[in-house]
Amino acid sequence: MDVAEYIPFWDSLTKEQQETLKNAASSAVITKGNQVFGETDGCLGFVIVESGCLRAFITSEQMREITLFRLRSSEFCLFSAGCIFGTQSFTIQLQALTDSRIIVIPAGVMKLITEQCIQAATFMNSLMAERFNNVMWLLDQVLFQRFDVRLLDYLKKECELQGTGELHSTHETIARDLGSAREVVSRMLGHFEEEGLVQLGRGIIRLQPAAAVQHSSSSSR
Fold first, then answer.
1. What pTM was estimated for this model as a whole?
2. Over its length of 221 residues, how does the chain's per-residue pLDDT go in tens digits?
3. What is the torsion angle, in degrees rounded to the nearest 10, for the CA atoms of residue 110, residue 77, residue 135 and residue 31?
């Protein structure tokens, strides 16, 4: 584990600070489906994804989940180290979407580094702003966008991430990501299939050429 390659402000740290980070950092392997961080876990620390993919999500009182964002290789999670921000607390949870390897830097160590190094503090503030913007965008989508537009946009983006024209997923997983119900997703996908936008198979959703046209026209409204 070479923590240096994952820290953008590494060269701005003193030798002593670099050694502190190296000695404090630990690595862990998280099996697909297992939770990395939960609502009651307190202050785990600053999480960096070495490999794999994590999902950050929240759960409502009705136990309905919605995915806030995903973390892939070389990306960071601040919310698992909420105590860095004083009295601010976060109720998100982290789950491994694939077998993943992570680096954890204790919150106390990262707090000390950000207090001593302006470049570290700037990076942390920038990352917090980026995550906040992501969540605000999601809020806008949930509150103001039609569900059919959101679903089609989700399918297109997921296929692009996988580099294929098809998505291997369940209706329940899609509903969880979008904060909806499985029945709603299934009904809308059935409508999409009738419209020639997708082709449905067992655990597979294939985008059809018409989906790109529909997506473009919806996005331009």
1. 0.70
2. 789 999 999 999 999 999 999 999 999 999 999 988 765 556 778 899 999 999 888 887 777 888 888 899 999 887 776 666 654 556 788 899 899 999 999 888 988 999 999 999 999 889 888 888 888 888 887 778 889 999 999 999 888 877 888 898 899 999 989 988 889 999 999 999 988 899 998 889 998 887 766 544 444 43
3. -160
